[in-house]
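Key result, reporting period 2: structure in, sequence out.
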């Protein structure tokens, strides 16, 4: 009896010990805090595989304004070429502007106003020209052959209707509207030298006034003045009209 009573406390202690060991075996792993393993570096390909819609930047990036001092849309050679082209165009424009009002043409031996008097004058100095052909066969004027640079005069007083460096086959040309003897007279002066025009559209000119210089511009094969005369809208033969009317 005494031995049985002594075993009961020992049995209880053994049971409590077994239960405690079981509880510790289950609970302790859950509360354990093992050292985490070193994570392997993640590559761009791995991140892209996880989420193909995400933008992945491999390094820190900061927005910076573009500096014109270190960025250019063209090379230095292209910039230099562009500047040279612009400078050449500016020089050409300046030369054309100067030439349009220039009087630096060799008119030695010629008067700067047409000799003679009256409402009508010869458009070239007497003795400086020869007529190669006149109106006929689709040709609307008289071709007065003369050296390049020979002065051209207004055949009659009037207003400049046209003045340009290129008017169709006339090349450099001036056209005047005049009234002579109560009749409306239109005269045309074609093939002048480039830059030789002395009058502009809308300008009023006097009979015999210098308006340009003989050249060979437009549809022309030799230096000459193409001179046309229209009276009240009808074409007339210029040389006959001059011989009758020019003073």
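The corresponding designed sequence is given below.
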């Amino acid at each position: 009896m005494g031995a049985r009573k002594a075993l009961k406390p020992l049995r209880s202690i053994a049971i409590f010990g077994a239960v405690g060991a079981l509880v510790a075996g289950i609970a302790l792993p859950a509360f354990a805090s093992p050292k985490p393993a070193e994570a392997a570096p993640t590559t761009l390909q791995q991140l892209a595989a996880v989420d193909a819609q995400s933008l992945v930047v491999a390094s820190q990036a900061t927005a910076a304004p573009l500096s014109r001092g270190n960025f250019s849309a063209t090379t230095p050679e292209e910039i230099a070429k562009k500047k040279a082209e612009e400078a050449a165009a500016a020089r050409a424009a300046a030369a054309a502007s100067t030439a349009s009002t220039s009087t630096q043409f060799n008119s030695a031996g010629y008067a700067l106003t047409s000799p003679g008097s009256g409402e009508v004058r010869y458009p070239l100095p007497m003795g400086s020209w020869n007529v190669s052909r006149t109106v006929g066969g689709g040709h609307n004027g008289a071709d007065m052959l003369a050296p390049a640079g020979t002065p051209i005069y207004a055949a009659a007083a009037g207003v400049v209707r046209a003045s340009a460096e290129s008017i169709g086959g006339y090349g450099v040309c001036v056209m005047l509207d005049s009234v002579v003897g109560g009749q409306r007279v239109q005269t045309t002066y074609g093939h002048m030298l480039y830059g030789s025009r002395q009058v502009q559209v809308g300008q009023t000119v006097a009979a015999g006034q210098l308006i340009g210089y003989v050249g060979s511009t437009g549809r022309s094969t030799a230096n000459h003045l193409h001179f046309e005369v229209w009276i009240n809208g009808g074409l007339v033969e210029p040389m006959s009209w001059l011989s009758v009317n020019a003073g």
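The longest helix spans residues 2-31. Residues 52-72, 97-103 have pLDDT under 50 and may be disordered. This case is discussed further under Risks and Mitigation.
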